[in-house]
Amino acid sequence: MEEKIEKHTIAVLVDNEPGVLARVIGLFSGRGYNIESLTVAEVNNADHLSRITLVTSGTRMVVEQIKAQLDRLVPVHKVHDLTDEGPSVERELALVKVAGTGDRRIEALRLADIFKAKVVDATLTSFVFELTGTTAEVDDFVGLMAQLGLVEASRTGVVAMSKGATGF
Amino acid sequence: MPEQKLTGAQIVIKALKDQGVDIIFGYPGGAVLPIYDAIFQQNDIKHILVRHEQAAVHAAEGYARSTGKVGCVLVTSGPGATNAVTGLLDALCDSIPLVCLSGQVPTHLIGNDAFQEADTTGITRPCTKHNYLVKDVNQLARTMHEAFYVARSGRPGPVLVDIPKDVQFADGTYIPPTEVKHKTYRPQVKPEIARVEEAIELIANAKRPIFYTGGGVVNAGPIAAKLLTQFVKMTGFPITSTLMGLGAFPASDPQWLGMLGMHGTYEANLAMYNCDVMINIGARFDDRVTGKLSEFAPGSKKIHVDIDPSSINKNVAVDIPIVGDAGAVLEDMIRIWKARQKRADQTALKEWWGQVEGWRARNCLNYNRTEAVIKPQYALERLREALRGKNHYVTTEVGQHQMWAAQFLPFDEPNRWMTSGGLGTMGYGLPAAIGAQLAHPDAIVVDVSGEASFLMNMQEIGTAVQYRAPVKIFILNNKYMGMVRQWQELLHGSRYSNSYSEALPDFVKLAESWGCVGLRATTVAEVDEVIEKMLAVTDRPCIIDIAVDPKENCFPMIPGGKAHNEILFGPEDSPSDATPEDGMVLV
């Protein structure tokens, strides 16, 4: 009996101290859990708190294990499973470099407009687009650009937050 | 009054004193010289000089397990810290509270590949419960106190504090433990009462119940063991325990079924397999215990009490999870059981005990008694008789002798039995015995050993001699790495690849060369004699070399990948039945 693999977005509030990210990543690699994406930055300068958003996948039992394992790390304040805890918004930012001339260049620009991507760098033969959206939207955009001279893409990975008035 | 400034090294010593440390196990080196200088200038904390840093950690484990206090270790940077790694992981696997202090190169040299530099916090991160690198002397006292708090709270474990040499020299301010409160770490001790009530209902209605308890009860302190005994007596249920939990419930009690798991008793394993309600208190469904997961206690409802939420539903899905300290949960269980005037279903229980007694009558620990050769089981039975009624502690190394010791030595109290369970570290027993002996100078401390394990940390005889720790090293010498040989026989066609103990020393002469007493038994008649002589030695270590049957295997055995009802009882059980292809890949 194979259990269903679920994808979960988990937000973790941690002390911003040396080694804390290594602890989180070491936990995932050491125990063989998946990380599909991971982002981290300080969110509270006064209290030195950082917020880690990670997207992972596994059976229900594994996802529960991941949360319990994260929660028992000493510098971890809170662990929230945004996928379980009601509606949330998820966004990714991407920078996408496309090189080309003529029709391909015009088409890239038209598509960027449709996706509401911003041009943040332009030369006569290239663009760098900045795009914010869901992972699926960014996937679609990068997929289209691949046919129009994609040079490289850089993505932040998912940041996420629950909907509504309450917070962490 | 102006704040008194202390050096970092003095802060370390003051923090250790304020944390109640009386013994620290360590080995000096360049990066910890200031702390050693501070140790030299005081008399409250006794430093025990080991011969290898791994042994310092195991000795601290023996000290911690036999006293319930936090063990303390001091090592230098680089190789000092890397040598301690095995001990730290051992303590993590078995939830032993330790604080390990390591020296580090001065802060300005960190990252420069300096002499004896190692990324100690990086290396020990997965081997400790938590670790710290202290770069500011004014954070040192706080960090030390936090380290002790984290080590002993919740599920206990080892904590490492890495202290650069310049921080040890620098002047800073000391703060006492009372002024330190950890920002985030607050393990749940008290259980959710609704869950305990649910559990009580399930327990009261059980027809074929069993208690399955583990090291968590021992870690929760002697009161938890008393409460466990009280509750088990109140219910009248059978009880089994893991290797780590031995002694929490008295082995002399008729409700005790012996250890369960791979080398557990027939009655314990079959009671687990056939139970309808399993009450797990402080055990973690380790693979040595569960065997084949899909056939683990298939018809049972499971209650799991654990202070570590990540232990619950990790290997085995349970019906009633209860997060909390074993002692606190047992207290609530007893209170609610009494308040609701619960009584076990006596008819069902009588029938269940009838079944259990039937399994017990199989006498699974029986072995081939002979006068021709010393059976290791026989030697342990004689040791058991000699220790009966005496104040004693037992440590072990790892392998066949460890399993036999667990099967044949009974423990009626917690904190008397120290063994490397989770990590299975050969070489654990001798230093752990030294740690236990120094904590209990008047007790008898026996390291039940094998000749191969003993060789792994035998340099520690020097430590035992220096501090007049009269530990008894009871070597069941079968000239093989016995457990390796047993698996090679059962699973690898008797191809004994590299498991023979070639070029062994003369253990009696070895003992004498250290100024210890060396004894040897080669015939059955000599066993009692050497045990008697061994117990008469009280001023120095004693090495006892017992030449046991080299071919003896440890039974009962549930081969890897098999279920609790597929037990091998002895050599008459065909090994080929025991070698499923999928079982072979398991350890």
Automatic annotation (TrEMBL), chain A:
<comment type="pathway">
    <text>Amino-acid biosynthesis; L-valine biosynthesis; L-valine from pyruvate: step 1/4.</text>
</comment>
<dbReference type="InterPro" id="IPR054480">
    <property type="entry name" value="AHAS_small-like_ACT"/>
</dbReference>
<protein>
    <recommendedName>
        <fullName>Acetolactate synthase small subunit</fullName>
        <ecNumber>2.2.1.6</ecNumber>
    </recommendedName>
</protein>
<comment type="function">
    <text>Catalyzes the conversion of 2 pyruvate molecules into acetolactate in the first common step of the biosynthetic pathway of the branched-amino acids such as leucine, isoleucine, and valine.</text>
</comment>
<comment type="similarity">
    <text>Belongs to the acetolactate synthase small subunit family.</text>
</comment>
<keyword id="KW-0808">Transferase</keyword>
<dbReference type="GO" id="GO:0003984">
    <property type="term" value="F:acetolactate synthase activity"/>
</dbReference>
<dbReference type="InterPro" id="IPR019455">
    <property type="entry name" value="Acetolactate_synth_ssu_C"/>
</dbReference>
<keyword id="KW-0100">Branched-chain amino acid biosynthesis</keyword>
<dbReference type="Pfam" id="PF10369">
    <property type="entry name" value="ALS_ss_C"/>
</dbReference>
<dbReference type="GO" id="GO:0005829">
    <property type="term" value="C:cytosol"/>
</dbReference>
<comment type="subunit">
    <text>Dimer of large and small chains.</text>
</comment>
<dbReference type="InterPro" id="IPR004789">
    <property type="entry name" value="Acetalactate_synth_ssu"/>
</dbReference>
<dbReference type="InterPro" id="IPR045865">
    <property type="entry name" value="ACT-like_dom_sf"/>
</dbReference>
<dbReference type="InterPro" id="IPR039557">
    <property type="entry name" value="AHAS_ACT"/>
</dbReference>
<comment type="pathway">
    <text>Amino-acid biosynthesis; L-isoleucine biosynthesis; L-isoleucine from 2-oxobutanoate: step 1/4.</text>
</comment>
<dbReference type="InterPro" id="IPR027271">
    <property type="entry name" value="Acetolactate_synth/TF_NikR_C"/>
</dbReference>
<dbReference type="InterPro" id="IPR002912">
    <property type="entry name" value="ACT_dom"/>
</dbReference>
<dbReference type="GO" id="GO:1990610">
    <property type="term" value="F:acetolactate synthase regulator activity"/>
</dbReference>
<keyword id="KW-0028">Amino-acid biosynthesis</keyword>
<dbReference type="GO" id="GO:0009097">
    <property type="term" value="P:isoleucine biosynthetic process"/>
</dbReference>
<dbReference type="GO" id="GO:0009099">
    <property type="term" value="P:L-valine biosynthetic process"/>
</dbReference>
<dbReference type="Pfam" id="PF22629">
    <property type="entry name" value="ACT_AHAS_ss"/>
</dbReference>
